[in-house]
Design a protein that fits this description.
Blueprint lengths: L12 H24 L3 H28 L4 H30 L22 H14 L4 H4 L3 H33 L30 H4 L15 H61 L3
GO cellular component, one term: Golgi apparatus
Keywords: Membrane, Transmembrane, Transmembrane helix
InterPro entries: EXS_C
Length: 294
């Protein structure tokens, strides 16, 4: 049967379009795990994998209802499979929202089932958000009560409100985490102009290329996307390092030349002083000889 003649609930385009977002996020999480080796990204990938499976199963259930209405066992089995996958995906996603994205449900927290640091003054806001998020996550149950347009609209509108609420608590948790761990600071390399006249002659300070980013453990910065350098970029960085080493050598040579020049100037000054003192002594002797009576 042509796709244009099928019901919107059973057309093959429905699961493809509905699962496009979770599938993309699934591969993004796998890439993040490849870049950072942080196991938490595998857990996040599992959440999107369960969501994708549940989307496929709801399509399968509706498909059997339309085309296998006479086969009661097949329809019942598809419905059971859909309910199981949907419950697993919902529990998984809701648990991830509360414990990872919002960093709540801390058993050892001074605030019961919350976390130690809170931005909002009233705690009931967090408890309301937790209950509301759980309720809206399970709003798909209303599809078994009625499949009318009003029910579908209310469920979809509730999902919009849930995502809006999720953003508020997610940004709050990210702000607290960044302030506590200092992950919001990104070192930027700026051009530096060195004036030798402002430094002391014995100063041995040198301008070195910062290597802070290479000393940080990748697992401690698992939220930062750090792509690997390709061959051209690696060669460029190596050439940059060589330039810094060459500059250090030139600075050392310049310092030695300055020291030699200053030492030569000092020797000439000392010599001039000695000659002046010698001339003064000779002048005094001549005066004494002139004062002697013949």
């Amino acid at each position: 049967q042509p796709i244009c003649n099928l019901s919107l609930s059973v057309t093959p385009l429905a699961p493809i379009l509905s699962s496009f977002g979770p599938v993309m996020r699934f591969f993004q999480c796998l890439r993040r795990y490849y870049d950072t080796n942080a196991v938490i990204h595998l857990g996040n990938a599992g959440k999107y994998a369960s969501t994708t499976i549940s989307v496929m199963m709801i399509f399968y259930w509706r498909y059997t209802v339309v085309y296998y209405a006479d086969d009661y066992n097949k329809v019942l089995m598809s419905k059971i499979i859909y309910i199981i996958t949907q419950v697993v995906a919902t529990v998984y996603a809701n648990f991830w929202d509360l414990t990872q994205d919002w960093a709540l449900l801390k058993l050892d927290s001074s605030n019961f089932l919350l976390r130690d640091e809170l931005c909002y003054k009233h705690k009931w806001i967090y408890y309301f958000g937790m209950c509301n998020n759980t309720f809206l996550r399970f709003s798909w149950i209303f599809y078994f009560v009625s499949d009318s347009f009003l029910v579908r609209f209310l469920v979809a509108f509730g999902e919009v409100l849930r995502r809006w609420q999720w953003d508020i608590f997610r940004i709050e948790n990210e702000h607290i985490t960044n302030c506590r761990a200092g992950r919001a600071i990104k070192e930027l390399e700026l051009p530096t102009i060195f004036d030798p006249s402002l430094a002391s002659p014995t100063s041995t300070e040198k301008i070195k290329k910062s290597s802070l980013s290479s000393k940080v453990n990748r697992k401690q910065t698992w939220r930062d996307f750090e792509p690997k350098l390709d061959k051209d970029e690696a060669d460029y960085v190596q050439e940059d390092d060589d330039d810094y080493e060459e500059d250090d050598v030139n600075d050392n040579l310049d310092e030695n030349d300055n020291d030699c020049e200053e030492k030569g100037n000092l020797d000439s000054v000392i010599k001039d002083n000695l000659d002046y003192e010698k001339k003064q002594e000779e002048g005094e002797k001549d005066n004494e000889n002139d004062n002697i009576d013949p």
